[in-house]
Amino acid sequence: MKRILRNIGWLLGSRGVNAAFSLVYLALATRVLGLEGFGRFALLIVLAQGIAGLASFNTWQAVVRWGAEDGRAATATGFALALDLASVAFGSVLALAAAWTAPYWLPLPAELRPLIFLLCMAHLLAIRSTPTGVLRLHDRYDLAMLAEAALPATRAAGAAIAAFAGLGIAGFVAAWAVAELACAAAHWLLARKFAPFRMSDISLKRLPAERERVWRFVFATGFSRSLAVTGKQVLMLLVGALGGAALAGGYRVAVQFGHALVQLGEASARALYPELVRVSHAAHGLAGRMTLLAFGAGLISVAAAVLAGRWAIAAIVGPEFVFAYTTLVLLALAGAVELLGSSWEALLVSKGRAELAFGLRAGPLALAMGLLPAAIGAWGLPGVGACVVLASSATVAGFGYAASRLPRVAELPCGTTR
């Protein structure tokens, strides 16, 4: 538990730095580009993130799961890197298709197609799940935080240059792309000394030949991660397609502020998973304690959104975005619900039930997307927030029930099991 809290501290420190610099870029982008312009910029960003999320696998979990075994760290790392390279190849095809078709279904002009493609490729080349897994495997969350700091710092500096040079959307997109690549480079530079693998270790065949159910685990965790990440991006793209650039800009602002309030859940899940793998005999107890911590953090997040959300939006991004306040509160509520489920989801994955976790995310997300057009028509932007709350609540209820049904292993004082 002490190691988990220490690692959460490092992760939260990274998220805190990220949030502070993100507010700088957000303030510059919204005030320079305006409501419509920022909405278009947000759709570009989300489309690129969605492509990268759809094409990539959650390879850091494979590094932690099999890299912890004696003599298998290089094989696990090489397998994860091979998956990342395959993701770039597959994702480039998706990026080309997205860049060409985006103006037909999103409020984006056709002249932005080259920017869409270049930004998608930057996100794909900046996939850093494997070096992140290497650092977590060796409990170097401090180095991971240092590498992650390169992203918001570069992004904020680039946004300042774009704003004062009058470079418009292209300048902000360039700043975002350079920041992604700089962050990936920092991760690899810091992780390389902990991953002494050779080129011959980069293989999609070696680890599956040595361990059973590797592909089943990889696809289940990858799809679950894609749902968690890409699902949010798809919701935003649907908001833009159905409601226009201005509504998309307001939703992006609400998402940014709401995400900043629920960083503890993401940090706790990422810090908890390696411990659940290492000490499976104590997994239920660890997950239970983290759930109590998440409950308290969720209450604080919702209270902060209600009490300070309206003021923060007006002060940082401008009064024209205040219409996103109600949606911010709803997203903070959804994030608080997700906090409760983060430990249960990590427990399911650590116990080899990644496919179940994926299914518990897929169903509610599909329901939310199906209800989205009617919700926007009836309530506007708050309707989107209501759909997110519904999906998060259904997903976490499923996680809780499934985790409660997992078989428990009795703990002995010496730490062995019987």
From TrEMBL:
Stretches assigned to coiled coil: none
Membrane spanning residue stretches: 12-32, 38-57, 78-100, 112-131, 292-316, 322-344, 356-376, 382-403
Protein name according to UniProt: Oligosaccharide flippase family protein
Keyword Cell membrane: yes
Bilayer topology term: Multi-pass membrane protein
GO CC annotations, alphabetized: plasma membrane
Annotated localization: Cell membrane
Pfam family, one: Polysacc_synt
Subcellular location, principal: membrane
